[in-house]
Amino acid sequence: AVATAKNITKTEYRARQTKDYLSPDEMNECEKFRIHEAYGMEVTKELVEKDNSGRLIGAIAALEAILSPPEEIILDSKTGKQYPLPPAFVTGKDRAERDKLPFCMDWGNYSAKWLARFNLGLHHILGRLVAGEEITAADPHLLNMTAIAIQCAAHIKAILGFTVPTDCQPIWLLATLVEQLGLKLACRKQGPRGQQVKFFSLSKSELEFALQVIAHRQKQRSSYLETQPSHSFEPVLSPVSTPPHNCIGNPHLEGVDTTQPEEALGQRGSWAEGQESLSPASSTDRITLLHCVETLRSGIAQGVEAVKGILKRWTTDLRWETVLELEAQALGELRSLEAAIPEFYEWLSEEVLPMEG
Prior knowledge:
The chain has helices at residues 10-17, 24-39, 45-51, 55-67, 88-100, 110-120, 122-130, 140-151, 153-159, 170-179, 204-226, 264-272, 286-302, 304-311, 316-329, 331-340, 344-347; strands spanning 72-75, 82-85, 185-190, 197-202, 241-242, 256-257. By secondary structure, it is mainly α.
């Protein structure tokens, strides 16, 4: 059902996340959007099953993290010990959870998991395996990782979620760790009968799939960083109204637009900011909705505070209806607004940005 669901836009997906109830079809559409965004490939029945309700993409994200080098090494001048700092996108994910969910104690603790795996030496071992090397149970780095795991069994249980037995075998430990990262070990034997040695490597199918997804994630991250402006965004040129030449002796009720007639709606957006709040029912009539869109567009031209002031006069439903209509009319302006105000979609909730009046 997920693979055959209708495609939706990012704005529609975000709007549905604020609703208390979604129909089964809407839930499938949201799940299809999430999977497509996460993997960057066509959503098929096989991919939905492989995703396993988001568990696989979480594992691949952890794989990307541990394959990435530390952001920096912090040196303690008193003790001389070195402390690796997790990559920026890992610490940023932790910080985002704590900022957006301050009262939730069930945070992901991605930095702690990265540090546990790094201190075990998994970063270096995985780097060799991803490069195509094979490893045996007698590998010195693997033996060192096993000794550390046995010594820190309580910490591994608390952070990584599995029990390390006192007689832990190196290959079992490695297989358990890579399985948490969405990978599997492949084995081949070499040598005469009775003297065979097992060589272990990463399964190619799982590795190739994971690397493809990691490349997609890195491309997404780069695209997002490229769209980030320096605390401000380019204003959208708005129409200018001037009074007619004979207005002094014989005043008129309205001025004359100097722009094209089809942009006349944009003029009404400027004076509408001083009007009273609109609080329509869940379904807004078309004329009112178009008027709200032009009001928002005029606010974009004036800056962040103007946008916030406009949203404060509307209910949550009207805010979302206006944004969806803006996406249909001027997608470029909406994307610029998203880049300039990262918390814009949070402002669409009256719990975050209360309605005034």
